Amino acid sequence: MKLHSPAIPHGGRIPLKYVMKGASGENISPPLKWSEIPEGTKSLVLVCVDTHPVAKNWIHWIIINIPPETLELAEGASPNGIKPPAMELINSYGFKGYGGPQPPPGTGDHSYVFKLFALNVPEIALPSKPTYDQILKTIKPYRLAESEFVGYFGR
User: Which residue, 11, 47, 108, 146, shows the most beta carbons closer than 10 Å to its own?
Assistant: First the structure.
């Protein structure tokens, strides 16, 4: 399985338009594309997490129950372009949908890991504001494959 963004090169800088307004951005969700979904996939889960030690696995975006025939999300898909049964949950900022990078000044570059998981069940249930550990624990028994790419941002 492969996951990428036409707007964020793997290992590259996240453009300002995808960054929170408090960090001089526009908080637009980036375009994402994926391919080579494994046979038997019944749903997908997308997570964007800041793994920097200061951030402590801060969830920037989580979408569950994405149909396996969905192969991309357009730029700006969050919050109005996500259609059921796919569902955005509450991020670590405390609102539903995409919340771009806004690392504390002076903490260096943070790594924002976009992860896509293929599951063998059509839907999963998570709390409305799950932690990263809750997400991983819930999907573990159903995970068929995963893919990721990393973008960086600091201020």
Answer: 47
Residue 8 domain boundaries: 2-153
Residue 113: which CATH number? Answer: 3.90.280.10
pTM of the model: 0.96
Compute the C-alpha angle 69/71/75, nearest 5°: 135
Confidence class for position 71, pLDDT limits 50, 70, 90: very high
Stretch (H or E) spanning 135: helix 132-139
User: How many domains are contained in the chain?
Assistant: 1
Query: How far apart (Å, rounded) are the C-alpha atoms in residues 146 and 155?
Result: 30
3-state class (DSSP) for residue 43: strand
